[in-house]
Amino acid sequence: MNPAQELFGDQQDDDHQQNYIHIRNQQRNGRKSLTIIQGLPKQFSSKKILKHFKKEFNCNGSITEDPEFGKVIMIQGDKRKLVGDFLVHEGIAEKDFVKASL
Question: Where is the SUI1 domain (predicted)?
Fold first, then answer.
């Protein structure tokens, strides 16, 4: 079993189709911004990943359900590079499938 599957996994589904994970920055007012992560594989728990982001990056965040994109994680601040590096390092996604708009 994949180590990332043990830490952040919900289901025991190993035969999944690899989709792109999009990491975007949305500018709010002034210097404030949100980092939006969408397209995470369904076998990983969004709640556990968000909990790790909040602890690791010292920020707040939430999970919203989008009819088109599924579960979307939003965290405060511009954390695109950190999130992309985390997803690749933990084995949640391959580097080629992480699209971070920098």
Answer: 21-91
Question: Can you tell me the mean pLDDT for 14-33?
Answer: 83
Q: How far is residue 56's CA from residue 41's CA, in Å, rounded to a whole number?
A: 21
Q: In this predicted structure, what is the pLDDT of residue 35?
A: 97
Domains of the chain as residue ranges with CATH: 23-100 (3.30.780.10)
Q: Which residue bears the tokens 């594989």?
A: 41
Half-sphere exposure of 17 (CA within 13 A, CB side): 2
Between CA 17 and CA 30 the distance in angstroms is 39
Beta-sheet strand order (sheet of 98-100):
61-66, 70-76, 33-38, 21-27, 98-100
State whether residue 64 is helix, strand or coil. Answer: strand
pTM: 0.80
